[in-house]
Structure formats: structure tokens, C-alpha cells
Amino acid sequence: MVKELVNIIFTVISEVGDITVVKSLNIAHRGFSGRYPENTMIAFQKAVEAGSDGIETDVHITRDGEIVVCHDEKVDRTTNGQGFIKDLTYHEIKNLHAGVNFGGEFENSTIPNIDEFLDYVKDKNLLINIELKNGIIEYDNLEKRIIEKIYEYKLKDNLILSSFNHYSMVKVKELDNSIKTGLLYAANLYKVEEYAKKLGADAVHPYFPSVMKEDIVKNIKNSKIAINTYTVNEEEDMKRLIELDIDGIITNYPDVLGRLIKEADKNS
Ligand code: G3P
Ligand code: MG
Q1: Structural domains of the chain sorted by starting position, each given as residue range(s) with its CATH number in brackets
Q2: Relative to the CA of 162, which ligand 1 atom is closest?
Q3: Neighbours of ion ligand 2 (CB under 5 A)
Q4: Residue 238: in which H helix or E strand, if any?
Q5: Nearest-atom index, ligand 1, CA of 71
Q6: pTM for this structure?
Q7: What CA–CA distance (Å, rounded) separates 159 from 55?
């Protein structure tokens, strides 16, 4: 069975003879964050080992202009440091322990910069989802700088940018219409496919309860908008979303989701 990422990067196509089966992509949220320190290199490596089809991660900019991979605006929750990323230098951030919530086991883990992340994923045939964390702090030129990185690492075909800041997603399209964008939202936007079309987006990235209904999924997919839903950690929810043919399922547990996708594939 051949598994490859196709140009519409949101679906995996398995070819068996001349039968084509489309199934959901397994996207690791902040890497394999259910079992390893989120948004660290070990979490990304373990996601790949677990068989993820894709990786989701979050980015901010330091005081001295480095793009770093981290979820929160502050380093307090995930490291032994304190303060806003925007107020710290990259050197200060690099000296922090990013495995602090996992005891001594991952004490060498640090906050990666964007180059460490992209250099690791670039030749792994993964769907990369970079979430621009510019909903609270609007980092100068984050969109332009990330687009430059996408070209530097030749990742355009396998990468989608997303954000809760939809002005930012429009800005991405204005800068380069060929970069794929996904609109993050938390709940039940009415006729979201019409909104997404208006913004030129390629995908919607809803919190999963918003797309648990067949007609909602159908309307979005009929509009040629992909659906990548977050953050799905319970088996029952994963199963339902696989049944609904959701394009990408973002999870902290790519091992569990991978097993369920395989089982669904066998039974189909
Ligand atoms: O991109 C999906 C998901 O990561 C959005 O929420 O807060 O986990 O970044 P959050
Ligand atoms: Mg995120």
C-alpha cells in the first residue's frame, strides 16, 4: 500500500490497485505532546516515530527577532523561566529547561527556534501546520518572515499556516496567495465555508465539537475547503471524526489516532 501526501495536502491517498481510499491525516499537536514536553524536538521526533502524517506547532518572536516554537506568549508554564517571549532574547530563552514539567527525564530539552524545527521536518514528507500565535501580541512581520522560511526550506507544498487572528491569514494571502491558510476558531461559526471563501482560506481549523454534524462537514467540503480539527484526545471523538471523513485530526496522542485510522481503514 502506497501512502503519499498529495498536492491537496490535507488528505492521505492509499492506492491499492486502482482503488483509491481517502482517509484522515493524523496530525501531532505540538508534537507528541500527550507524552513528551510540548513543542520540543523530542516531541517532534516521537511524533514521527509514532507514524504521524503531520505536525502542528506554534510560533512567537523574541526580543531580538528570533522566531521560536512555543505555545504560550510567556515561558512560565512550560519552562523554568519567567516572562514574555517578546521581552526575552533568544540566548535567554535557549538557556531555559523546556522539559521541566516531566521531572528529570527530558532535562536537555529546550525551546527550538524555527530553523531547528524546519530543518528536522523538511525531508520527512509530513504535513506541517505552523500556527501563528499573533492573536494577543502582533509580532512585526511575522507573516512575511514565516513565508521566507517556507521558501528557504522548500516546504510550500506540504505546509499550512493557521491562526485565530484572521486578519493575519488575510495578510498571508495578500503577501503570497499560494501559501495555504487555515482559520482557527473555537465554536460554531455560521456558514463558515462562506466566510472562509471570502478570506481566501484553504482550510478551517475548528475546535472539533463545531464539526460533529454531517451536514456541517458536507457543506464545508463541498465548498472545497479542507477541515483540520483540534484538539482531539478521546477515542470516541477520534472515531466519529474519522467516520465523518475529516481531512486532518490534530491530537496530543498520534499513537492512539494512528491505530484508530488503521482500524477504520481495515474495516472500510
Ligand atoms: O492549531 C490547533 C490548536 O493548536 C489551536 O489551539 O491553543 O492548542 O494552539 P492551541
Ligand atoms: Mg496551536
Answers
A1: 2-60+118-267 (3.20.20.190)
A2: 1
A3: 58, 131
A4: helix 235-243
A5: 9
A6: 0.94
A7: 10
